[in-house]
Amino acid sequence: MSFEARQKWSILASAWKDTGPPAAPSLQDVSNYIGHISKRKATVLLLGCTSSLRNRLLGDSCKVVSVDITRRMLEATKPLVTESDADIVVQGDWLHLPLNNNEVDAVVGDKILGNVMPEEWAELFAEVKRVSRPTAPFLTRASPHGEDLLQPPAIRPFSELVKRWAIFYKEGMDIDSACSGLWEDCMDMSTVSITPFVGTQQLKRVIPITKIECLSSAGKEQHAISLVRLFIRKFWHSREARWSAYTVKGILTAASIHFDYVGQYTATDYPEGDRQPVFHFVSRT
Ligand SMILES: C[S@@+](CC[C@H](N)C(=O)[O-])C[C@H]1O[C@@H](n2cnc3c(N)ncnc32)[C@H](O)[C@@H]1O
Fold first, then answer.
1. Residue 79, exposed/middle/buried by CB under 10 A (0-12, 13-18, 19+)?
2. 210 lies in some domain
3. Is this model's pTM higher than 0.85 or not?
4. Does 150 map to a domain?
């Protein structure tokens, strides 16, 4: 699995730094994370290397330990983060965290559950619990498919999804965010269940077979053409990559072995922010 994650993110790394919400956290999402870490000067474990989270935590005088398996992602985000001795970056696997027991005051990680296949979630939550001090907050934004049973959305043609995000782009959304929204819609559309509560997503299940077909789905509208061109550049090569899909019940059940659930916080500064809350847990004593 970790090898699979590294391969996937090595492909995505060069384009990812410009990716806006929903695939990366918005300003409000970042506040929803940081607002629930009470201790200043805390040692915070970041799962991944999200630059916006690192910058905000460093600004709050926290020590940030980012653990990410993909060297290219660590390199790509470095120039986006304020230089600081408190920004510690480690290449490592979340399933075998290179940290001691009870070492950190808080854990954050944006969309980490989509990156770990559901059969490995138990290991992930156990590792996060192991390195967390008792009652440490653990915050992660997720994009569940509803509350209970995993219900893959009805398949809609790629051209329809393109049209939707091209309108947002035309109305003023930046193209990186529109492209990220298009990508997430395609991912949603590709959901296949493994159990009633969890499943997988894979872009190649829903996008056209060739790049030419993909581009022709944009029609003649200029915003749509630009959007699809960017989509191909950013995401085409990761068509085979697998991601996990889940419901709220899937998340809460997996977390409940080691964590108490506190609540969910939604952002309103991008379309569909309300479907991608930051989940707040605390490590059980
Ligand atoms: C945190 S996630 C999602 C990206 C996020 N939404 C963002 O832009 O902030 C992506 C990162 O997780 C890393 N990753 C995925 N699986 C991992 C694993 N098992 N161990 C460590 N890092 C992993 C990838 O290398 C990638 O850099």
1. exposed
2. yes
3. yes
4. no
